[in-house]
Design brief:
single chain, Metalloprtase-TldD/E_N, Metalloprtase-TldD/E_cen_dom, PmbA/TldD fold, alpha+beta, Metalloprtase-TldD/E_C, 5-stranded mixed beta barrel, metallopeptidase activity, 448 residues, 23% helix
Length: 448
């Protein structure tokens, strides 16, 4: 894997070759990563994995025609050949009046913000094995646990670099660490499975494998003897481990591609109150040690903390340069790019700000409701906002969390769900997308 400076040097050569062959403009990206992982099951080593990959993508423009070519061969000859193919393809491509590099005057010049996303540590395989074993041992020690699907520990590092023909060059690296366990409780037809995991940029921030394993075991045991639930309308409470999925649906609905195609249920909602008054949703690419922190976006534009929802009101779209041109707007700094295609958009460290009530206060007046801890399937229509997903969790009775429930479906419409949502005060930054416990009124719960 190349270091950031070496990666930029390769990109400069690729862009220079494309320009020499007749490209009016070009950009190139490098992505390299290496990772190690260990998986154990029932106290025995099952698998050791090691992967290394690197690739360069070249995008060229001839007028308003463009083409993308990628190569995993990073030699000078291979990159020159890739640039030649890209130029030849661009000459035959259809015109796209919105295509082009990001506005030159908007490019970020550095120095990059100190995000502290690479700790430089190198964890040996034997240490990863010890972590995986410790996680599984802690899970199997929980009373009621009967079997294990295994535990894993991993470490990795990645380098990302981007250069353009109109003045941008930037690169950064990031480290990652993880530990997980998947555990079975009960026996026969009454078995239940659950899991836990944690990931971090710095090894020092990773939860202990014992804590992760114990949580996985406790979750599995708590799901034993699930009850059936009759169909009806009731309050549904989303646990933080699944509440972030609602933010994912929100982000997809405000992406530039969905808005330009008119395929979003929020396409006419700019500036409107789509969440309860006072609620805010933030995307923060500059969070120190954040799982998706980045100093610049996939087109070389600066990134910044953004209020996507401010006091309940939708403030804007997630736009790359092409979708911004189509909408007569400006790119938002959310462009995201792979090596084999043009930019799209993505959020970074996305979260909903915490509310003012505790979790217990949030459910105290629920006579009969549902706490969702697992969601199954992808039953969301981003065009209409219709929402229907398989779920499992726990019954709420008279303000208390009681028996486990399974084989149910929760349904509603995201527009109504967003407006009838109340967050608790228990926001924790554990994932790349985070939300506190969320209560939503008037959802339909379909049981067996």
């Amino acid at each position: 894997m190349l270091d950031p400076n070496a990666a930029l040097d390769r990109l400069d050569h690729a862009i220079a070759r494309a320009k020499a062959l007749g490209a009016d403009a070009a950009d190139a990206i490098y992505f390299g990563d290496m990772s190690s992982s260990v998986h154990v099951r029932l106290g025995e080593l099952e698998d050791i994995g090691r992967s290394e990959a690197e690739e360069i993508g070249i995008r060229v423009f001839i007028g308003q025609r463009s083409a993308n070519v990628s190569s995993s061969d990073l030699s000078a000859a291979a990159l020159a050949a890739a640039a030649e193919r890209a130029v030849a393809m661009a000459r035959e491509a259809p015109e796209d009046r919105y295509a082009g590099l990001a506005p030159a005057e908007r490019l970020t010049k550095g120095p990059w913000p100190a995000l502290d996303i690479d700790d430089g540590a190198d964890i040996p395989v034997e240490a990863l094995r010890a972590r995986a074993l410790a996680a599984e041992d802690a899970a199997r020690a929980v009373e009621g646990v009967s079997n294990s699907q295994g535990a894993s520990a991993s470490t990795g590092r990645a380098v990302y670099a981007l250069a353009t023909s109109h003045g941008f060059a930037g690169a950064y690296s990031g480290s990652s660490y993880g530990v997980s366990a998947s555990i079975i409780a009960g026996s026969g037809d009454a078995m239940q499975r659950d899991f836990a995991y944690h990931s971090a940029r710095h090894d020092a921030d990773l939860e202990t494998p014992e804590a992760v394993g114990r949580l996985a075991g406790e979750r599995a045991v708590s799901r034993l003897s699930p009850a059936k639930l009759a169909t009806g309308a009731m309050p549904v409470v989303f646990d933080p481990r699944v509440a972030g999925s609602l933010l994912g649906h929100f982000a997809g609905a405000i992406s530039g591609s969905a808005i330009t195609r008119g395929t979003s249920f929020l396409k006419d909602s700019l500036g409107q109150e789509i969440f309860p008054r006072g609620l805010s949703i933030v995307d923060d690419p500059l969070r120190v040690r954040g799982l998706r922190s980045r100093p610049f976006d996939g087109e070389g534009l600066p990134t910044a903390r953004t209020l996507l929802v401010d006091g309940g009101h939708l403030t804007g779209w997630l736009l790359d340069s092409a979708s911004a041109r189509q909408l007569g707007s400006s790119p938002s700094g959310h462009a995201s790019r792979g090596v084999s295609g043009p930019p799209g958009v993505s959020t970074s460290n996305l979260y909903m700000e915490a509310g003012t009530q505790s979790r217990s206060a949030l459910i105290a007046d629920i006579r009969r409701g549902l706490l969702v801890t697992e969601l199954i399937g992808q039953g969301v229509n981003v065009v209409t906002g219709d929402y229907s997903r398989g779920a499992a969790g726990f019954l709420i009775e008279d303000g208390e969390i009681t028996s486990a429930v399974a084989e149910i479906t929760v349904a509603g419409n995201l527009k109504s769900m967003f407006l009838n949502l109340t967050p608790a005060d228990d926001l924790v930054f554990r994932y790349a997308v985070n939300a506190p416990t969320l209560r939503i009124e008037g959802m339909t719960v379909a049981g067996a």
